[in-house]
Fold:
Amino acid sequence: MTSVVVHESPRRELPKAAKGGVFVLFWIIAIVLWIIAPNISDPRWGAFVVDTGIVFASVGFAAPGITWTKPFRNTLLAGVVAILLFLWADLNDVQVVVYFLRMFVPFAALLTSVYTLVGKVKVWY
Structure:
């Protein structure tokens, strides 16, 4: 018995200019957020601004390693979910979620780059 495997189309390829633009733009946003965060008087909102900068820097770091538009869209949606979780956790003082996200979000961005690099490595037998 045979089974037919239908590969889902990843839509279209993401242009290199878009990857570089997202990288630069998101890192600029992250740096600006990190600069203004110490000037916020409420420490909960200051922590949220810093954590939002972490999300923008992580998505910007992951952007050059993403090839197709569908995974890029999913990465942006994951960033929005991370920002909403940071908002909830920072304002309600849920430290476990905050520290988990502070470690997990950059780690996921690092994995994107690692998988991109590993995908380019040629192994000769």
